Amino acid sequence: MDVEATRAIRWAEVGASRTMRERREKRFEIRPDWLAADTTYGNAENLGWLVEKRGIIPFIAVIDKSDRNDADVLHDIFRDYALEALADPDAVLVIDGEPVKQRIQ
């Protein structure tokens, strides 16, 4: 019913899914009672939005990060930021003052 192109980054996909659900509701007046998805969409922010803001019952595996330490979380934040920046063909990653361009495969 709808398509929203994104990079393969979790937060971008979650945002696109919200955009598509909202557009579908406006265009076709179709609002699901429940939603099934994989763990990409199982973060607390998205689950809260589905249940509290939209009244949708989620059948989504929850991403469990309870055993992670702060270093792991910071690593993921940096990785997502670096992947987004490197998706830009003009972006340059600088490590120890030297420009480095990596190809993401």
What does this structure look like?
- This is Transposase DDE domain-containing protein.
- It comes from Paracoccus halophilus.
- The structure is a single chain.
- The model has no long low-confidence stretch (mean pLDDT 76).
- The chain is built from three helices and four strands; from the N terminus they run αβαβαββ.
- With 105 residues, it is of the alpha+beta class.
- It has a two-stranded parallel sheet with strand order 1-2. A two-stranded antiparallel sheet has the order 3-4.
- β3 and β4 form a beta hairpin.
SSE layout:
Blueprint: H1 10-28, E1 34-37, H2 44-53, E2 57-60, H3 70-87, E3 93-95, E4 98-100
Parallel strand pairs: 1-2
Antiparallel strand pairs: 3-4
Entry keywords:
single chain, about 100 residues, alpha+beta, 2 domains, two-stranded parallel ribbon, two-stranded antiparallel ribbon, 3 helices, about 45% helix, about 15% strand, flat
In short:
This protein has 105 residues and is an alpha+beta fold. The chain has 3 helices and 4 strands, in the order αβαβαββ.
Identify the overall geometry.
flat
Spans where pLDDT lies below 50 across 5 or more residues: none
Share of helix, binned: 40-55%
**Total individual domains:** 2
Give the strand tally: 4
Between the first and last Cα atoms, what is the distance in angstroms? Answer: 30 Å
**Approximate strand percentage:** 5-15%
Number of helices: 3
Which strand order do you get reading across the main beta sheet?
A: 1-2
Order of helices and strands: HEHEHEE
Structural class: alpha+beta
Radius of gyration: 17 Å
- Summarize model confidence as the mean pLDDT: 76
Characterize the main sheet. 2 strands, parallel
Organism: Paracoccus halophilus
Protein name: Transposase DDE domain-containing protein
